[in-house]
Amino acid sequence: MSFALTAYLDRLGLTDVPEGLAGLRAVQEAHMRTIPFENLDPLLGRVPSLDPASLSEKLLARARGGYCFEHNALFGRALERLGYAPRPLLARVRNGAAEGGARTHQAFEVVIEGARWLADTGFGGHGALHPVALDDPAPQTLPNGTYRVVRDEAAAETVLERDAGDGWISLYGFDGLSAREIDLEAANFLCARWERAPFTANLMLALHGADGRRAMFNRALTLGMPPDTETRVIETPVEFADVLRDEFHLDVSDADIAEIWARIETAPTRR
Asked: How far apart are alpha carbons 123 and 127 in whole angstroms?
């Protein structure tokens, strides 16, 4: 099955994609504002499929979301059809740590008129709504915050950071080597099944809606961007079902909701 670009753009609400950087920005932002980050399948013991038919059925036809490998597999196919030639990268998530763990995150390098851009729709944390310039070390003000890239020579990595208001927070680092399809398949399987990966034990949701960012860690629902956030803990399975459907616009079966609630009812509400 070939990738259905029209169905993807319809899901994003885009009728026209301009050329160059403007188009890349438009697609990345619309994707992140429309398709939620969610790890329901790994939490339920399922390995997400990255083949085009499965991605289109889940993220487009069924209006579900996914985690980084699903988001960026879909995004990458769209970029290819739009003529951007994205180069896949594997990254180590840091989330404020001095160094990352295993290569469990995917992003892209896209070259436009000789300039390199970091494009990524699948970071469940505070990912950038627009591509980040890789050749400019200065802070870059984007629609959802200020970002920069720095070089970590000890790790031989380029690190994406976000201004958290009281300092810079590292998000993830990458060495810049191209990732092959088999690398992405292996990392996807690892994330879905490895007990040390966060996706098998905790619920994680995120969506950059028109009214701001919302995120969920197990039963803790957080609205807004740091430092201006508010958090409440979901107390009942009925309230949980409403949050999935109303806040994250997810079409999830009653059976899956019941199983997920059983897994998170007594789980920590803080990382």
From this structure: 5
Would you state the structure tokens that stand for residue 161, as one six-digit string? 């950071």
Backbone angles phi, psi at 225, to 5 degrees: -115, 140
The residue annotated as part of the active site, out of 71, 105, 126, 130, is 105
Does 191 qualify as catalytic in the annotation? no
Active-site entry in 31, 68, 71, 208:
68
Confidence tier at 2 by pLDDT (50, 70, 90):
low
Beta strands in 44-190, from DSSP E residues, in sequence order: 87-93, 103-112, 115-119, 132-133, 140-142, 145-152, 157-163, 168-178
Strand pairing partners for 89? 107, 178
Q: Catalytic pick from 71, 120, 126, 191?
A: 120
CA distance 47 to 120: 21
Closest to 11 measured CA to CA, from 80, 73, 61, 74: 61
User: For the segment 27-84, what is each residue's pLDDT rounded down to a tens digit?
Assistant: 999 999 999 999 999 999 999 999 999 999 999 999 899 999 999 999 999 999 999 9
Q: Residues 196-207: what's their mean pLDDT?
A: 96
**Partners of 133 in the beta sheet?**
117
pTM score of the predicted model? 0.96
Sheet with 220-225: list strands edge to edge: 37-38, 204-209, 212-217, 220-225, 228-233
- Distance, CA of 97 to chain centre: 19
